[in-house]
Amino acid sequence: MSDDGPSAVPARWLTVTEAAQQARVPRGVVEGWIGNGHLPAVLIDGLRRVRAEDLAAVEEQTLAGVILAWRHDRQHFGRRLRSLREAAGFTRRDLAAASGVSPHTVSRIEAGHYAPYAETVRRLARGLQLEPEQFVSEEPVGEAVRPLASGESSEGTTGCPTIG
């Protein structure tokens, strides 16, 4: 029996620091995901570790990149939301009705007074028929907003199946 030091850790397990680097979020965000039960962790060789697959799932669920970018520059992304809304031909009330987010909240987000949570971002994206990442994209607004092509799925836009 040889003593080669700490036990070999499979490559799929990341330390909290490695997970934060991979997700491009502060270490405290990963610790929060663990503490809140969103990201399972185990103790290996005295370090908390998470599986890369679990980290990817939590990143997708929480829209980490979108939310952090939005919180970093609320004014810029609020203006982007307004541009996307206007390019889609929506008033604030139209977007509120399509997304389930109140007109007051839409106004506060557009003015940069409020950085939305992941579920609000998802609702706004569904209302505008966009991917949430479009809110923080460098892509010109006109290319980001387009009506659904005939035959393309509108799943999730209203929560109801399309008939007809």
How do the helices and strands line up, and which of them pair or pack?
Elements: E1 13-15, H1 16-23, H2 27-35, E2 42-44, E3 47-51, H3 52-62, H4 64-72, H5 74-87, H6 92-99, H7 103-110, H8 118-128, H9 141-144
Helix pairs in contact: 1-2, 4-5, 6-8
Descriptive overview:
The chain is mostly helical and 164 residues long. It folds into two domains: 13-62, Arc Repressor Mutant, subunit A; 66-141, lambda repressor-like DNA-binding domains (434 Repressor (Amino-terminal Domain), Orthogonal Bundle). The chain is 50% helix and 7% strand. The chain has nine helices and three strands, in the order βααββααααααα. Strands 1-3-2 form a three-stranded antiparallel β-sheet. A hairpin with a 2-residue loop joins strand 2 (42-44) and strand 3 (47-51). The chain is elongated. The termini are far apart. The model is unreliable at 1-5 and 147-164 (pLDDT under 50).
Mean pLDDT: 81
The tally of beta strands, per DSSP, is: 3
| Helix percent band | 40-55%
CATH C-level class of the largest domain:
Mainly Alpha
Number of helices: 9
Within CATH, the superfamily of the largest domain carries the name: lambda repressor-like DNA-binding domains
Q: Estimate the strand proportion.
A: 5-15%
Secondary-structure element sequence?
A: EHHEEHHHHHHH
Query: How many domains comprise the coordinates?
Result: 2
Largest sheet: 3 strands, antiparallel
- CATH architecture label of the largest domain: Orthogonal Bundle
Low-confidence segments, ≥5 residues, pLDDT <50?
Answer: 1-5, 147-164
Kindly identify the CATH topology of the largest domain.
434 Repressor (Amino-terminal Domain)
Main structural class: mainly alpha
- Cα Rg: 20 Å
| Widest β-sheet, arrangement of strands | 1-3-2
